[in-house]
Amino acid sequence: MVQLKSKNTVVGIDKGELVSYVVQGHEFIHQKGSPGWGSADTEMFPIIGPVNEANFRVKTPKGEAVQDQHGLLRQMEYELEHQTETSAVFAKEYPSGTEVSNSKFPEKSTEEALSWPYDFRFEKSFLLTDDSLEIHFKVSGEEGMPFMLGYHPAFKLHSESPVIIAKDKEISLDEVLAVGSRALQVPDCTAITLKDKKEITITTEGFGHFMCWTEVGNMVCIEPITFYPYAVEQANLHQGFQKLEDSAQFKVILSPRT
């Protein structure tokens, strides 16, 4: 477990996963073991969304790739590359064509192994400042590699009627629950505020959109995304790709108001 500390703030990171963000005694991150989701955060790469209706295949310029929901990056382990009292850098490296075991097999998937026809390096770094937690993502690899990126953090809810504010519009938890597994689309948006017992704002660079998901009342996932996957049929998921030019950088800033 990696811990970052600053003033009245403690951040817990378990193998690259943000598992705790406590500010003045208030925990903002959903805890593993609590109802709703077995993780606290993850990345969706190189695809976002399910592909079960497309036989777990995604079209690329190098042919079809075998992928499962939200891509293969989450099936790989991070390596800790650097750490200070207020920062940590993790990375995953993938050689093209390498088979990665699929944890969804066989209960939720027919695919035992996933693969991608491009080399890439994925870096995730954390920087704790006096008033926020910055999470940086850097994708590097083959020129022209198609990809989508989504960040999937889960926030712990402390009240019965939390409100999500996006572009001056209020979104209730009931509205998110009503959409179910598809996740509520919040297009053309770079900042969302979650008003609960305490308030936190999620500001982004490079993503452009959000989607919100939960199926319980004690947590909500507020997810920056480059593409909303349910805008197309699963067989056409490739329409949401952008192309890598040398490298691509993205940022998420968590700014609590306690």
TrEMBL record:
SUPFAM superfamilies: Galactose mutarotase-like. It comes from Flagellimonas oceani. It holds the Pfam family Aldose_epim. It comes from the Bacteria. GO terms for molecular function: carbohydrate binding; isomerase activity. Its cofactor is Ca(2+). InterPro entries: Aldose_1/G6P_1-epimerase, Gal_mutarotase_sf_dom, GH-type_carb-bd. Keywords: Calcium. Monomer. One of its GO terms (biological process) is carbohydrate metabolic process. This is Aldose 1-epimerase.
